[in-house]
Automatic annotation (TrEMBL), chain A:
Protein name according to UniProt: Carbohydrate ABC transporter permease
Record-linked SUPFAM superfamilies: MetI-like (SSF161098)
Presence of the UniProt keyword Transport in the record: yes
Region Disordered, annotated ranges: 1-22
TrEMBL record, chain B:
Subcellular location, record wording: Cell membrane
One cellular component (GO) term of this entry: plasma membrane
GO BP, one annotated term: transmembrane transport
Membrane topology, record value: Multi-pass membrane protein
Domain ABC transmembrane type-1: 98-291
Name of the featured protein: Carbohydrate ABC transporter permease
PROSITE patterns (alphabetical): ABC_TM1
Gene3D superfamilies: MetI-like
InterPro entries referenced in this protein's UniProt entry, alphabetically: MetI-like, MetI-like_sf
Keyword Ion transport appears in the UniProt entry: no
Length: 316, 305
């Protein structure tokens, strides 16, 4: 959690939580438990009802047969056994992985490029704001906008392809292109946001390191790989965790555009969970699927922490 | 930190015509065009006659300019007129959805920020047993994916009889989100304690200190959190789709999805649809124009989300 405040403003002052109130508490001779309970009660109720209990209940439901109408019936690991034999599940995992990989690689590279551009060419808030704009608009709106622009018949993108003499592409309607298209749409929405996070990280790198490298005659390329990248690692890790976690949960774009098709080409895992739980009323199976997704995300976050050594900063 | 100019900038300063510099500016301008272009295309389509879009698919200006798309969406056009301009005849209760979005987003924002502020104060300023453990538990749930809690939460809202009510859509995020509590706690920790201590010595109670000292001093971060919460609530699709798909409570995002799926496959009402998306995005665009700098500056911090 030490990498959380990457912004230029650091709201946390490590030394702030000392001194003052402790003195007063000592003077009064007791804690503030009663007052604290009143202050924390509403949030605690919300937390227990909508975060803590659902987490436990979700795990419980994954071991049951439950069609919403009746009562959950305990079936042990039956759902999990079924999942491993479920072709649609494996297909959805494959599709999701393809999406996640495409999304992360393209988004990180594009965002890093944008962050470097912002840092070296234009630090203006206006430009940063413009690049952030797509991120502030709803997924549904972004999806509909690109659904129109990428329309096979009269979409502007296919129009442009024709001007360039390239044959038209049925972006959302083609089994091969559906996932890359959805990945592209989300890269477009998120690139400014990710770039801003990386930009904040770049700003935190002390300028004198570049001065020294410059005096030593290091090339820009060397400076980038020897100074910028290593020092950017904590922020890069944060960005990766946020992006991976987010992209595994892609839903809105798929729901509005392809609805999993053509055939099964874009049925990502969250859309599959949604279909099993809400369209087919199979809540137990849907819960088991979401437990698997939960575990995958946990493992991914753990691996990223381990391999990228994100909590270590080379400055320290 | 920023007083040191990056090395590359120094180097380029000496050479007036530098291809690298031109290339970087070109890349930046391209990025801005790619970012803003689609929004302009949205506007251009919304102002076009739907029938003319097919024959003028490459025109940069609106094809056969008309306000009809907006009029259609807002229910100001007669059916005959709508069909003459390529409307599908599918209607969308846009005003109702707009009102629903306003109600739900405002309800979530006001109460989530208020209750999270109360809790954040207890975590930042009050001394109580178990404080750090409870806070760690709060933070731990940041890692739980949304879909995971969405299924049981749906059951809970259903059992409470709150399906297709405003409260059902708002309730799970009304009392807190781990992020909101974390965000405000960080700011409260950084605030000076001197005024609070003086007030305490004068015999002020925590309630008074919270409302008369902490809140007025944290207007900035509270406003930032309000912005982020409102935008997130306004844009949310998955949860309102699950618990609020009935027309009476349907929010804009869900309504747009319905509007799209209602339009005929062969000849969708693109100009109507783009007019609808534009109006749906309008509150966010206005917030962006008014508070863009605040939003931009808060992103580095809110990266934890």
């Amino acid at each position: 959690m030490t990498t959380t405040s990457v912004g230029p403003r650091k709201p946390t002052r490590p030394s702030a939580d000392s001194g003052g109130s402790q003195r007063i508490v000592r003077r009064r001779g007791r804690g503030d438990l009663r007052v604290a309970l009143i202050f924390v009660a509403p949030a605690l109720v919300g937390f227990v009802l909508f975060y803590l209990v659902p987490t436990i209940r979700g795990i419980y439901l994954s071991f049951t047969d439950y069609s919403i109408l009746g009562n959950p019936v305990w079936v042990g690991v039956k759902n999990y056994v079924k999942i491993f034999q479920d072709k649609l599940f494996w297909n959805s995992m494959g599709v999701t992985l393809e999406y996640v990989l495409l999304n992360i690689v393209v988004q990180t590279v594009v965002a890093l490029g944008l962050a470097l551009l912002m840092y070296h060419v234009a630090k203006s808030t206006v430009i940063r704001g413009i690049l952030l704009l797509p991120y502030l608009v709803a997924n549904v709106i972004v999806a509909l906008l690109w659904f129109w622009m990428l329309d096979y018949q009269i979409g502007i993108v296919n129009q442009m392809l024709q001007w360039l003499g390239i044959p038209k592409v049925a972006f959302f309607g083609n089994e091969f292109w559906a996932i890359p298209t959805i990945a592209f749409v989300n890269v477009w929405r998120h690139m400014g946001y990710t770039a801003l996070l990386l930009f904040a990280g770049l700003q935190a790198i002390p300028g004198h390191l570049y001065e020294v490298a410059n005096l030593d005659g290091a090339s820009k390329w060397q400076t980038f790989w020897k100074i910028t990248m290593p020092l950017l690692r904590p922020v890069l890790l944060l960005v990766l965790v946020v992006t991976v976690t987010g992209s595994f949960q892609i839903f809105d774009t798929v729901a509005v555009t392809t609805q999993g098709g053509p055939i099964n080409a874009s049925r990502v895992i969250q859309y599959y969970i949604y279909q099993r739980a809400f369209t087919q009323q199979d809540f137990g199976y849907g819960s088991a699927l979401s437990v698997i997704l939960f575990i995958i995300l946990g493992v991914v976050a753990f691996l990223q922490m381990k391999f990228l050594r994100g909590n270590e900063n080379d400055l320290a | 930190m920023t007083t040191f100019a990056p090395a590359s900038r120094r180097a380029t300063g000496r050479r007036p015509l530098n291809w690298g510099r031109i290339a970087t500016w070109a890349a930046l301008i391209l990025a801005i065009i790619v970012t803003l272009g689609p929004f302009l295309w949205m506007l251009r389509t919304a102002l076009s006659n739907n029938h003319s879009l097919a024959t003028h698919s490459g025109d940069l200006l609106p094809a056969d300019f008309t306000w009809g798309g907006f009029a259609r969406v807002l229910g100001l056009q007669s059916t005959a007129q709508a069909q003459a301009e390529g409307g599908s005849g599918a209607s969308i209760s846009f005003w109702q959805y707009l009102l629903n979005s306003v109600i739900v987003s405002t309800l979530i924002t006001a109460s989530q920020v208020f209750f999270s502020a109360l809790a954040a104060y207890a975590f930042a300023r009050l001394q109580w047993k178990g404080r750090n453990k409870v806070f760690a538990l709060f933070l731990g749930t940041l890692l739980v994916p949304g879909i995971f809690t969405a299924l049981p939460n749906f059951l809970l809202i259903k059992n409470m009889g709150l399906l297709n009510t405003y409260l059902g859509i708002a309730l799970p995020t009304m009392l807190m989100t781990p992020f909101a509590v974390f965000f405000l706690r960080q700011f409260f920790l950084g605030m000076s304690r001197e005024v609070e201590e003086a007030a305490m010595l004068d015999g002020a109670k925590h309630g008074r200190i919270f409302f008369q000292i902490v809140i007025p001093n944290a207007v900035g971060p509270l406003a930032t959190l309000c912005l982020l919460t409102f935008i997130a609530a306004w844009n949310d699709y998955f949860w309102p789709l699950l618990v609020g798909n009935a027309p009476a409570v349907r929010v804009l995002t869900v309504g747009l999805g319905v509007f799209k799926s209602q339009s005929p496959q062969g000849a969708p009402d693109w100009s109507g649809l783009m007019a609808a998306t534009l109006i749906s995005a309008l509150p966010i665009l206005l917030l962006f124009i008014a508070f863009g700098k605040k939003i931009v500056n808060s992103i580095g911090f809110s990266g934890i989300k």
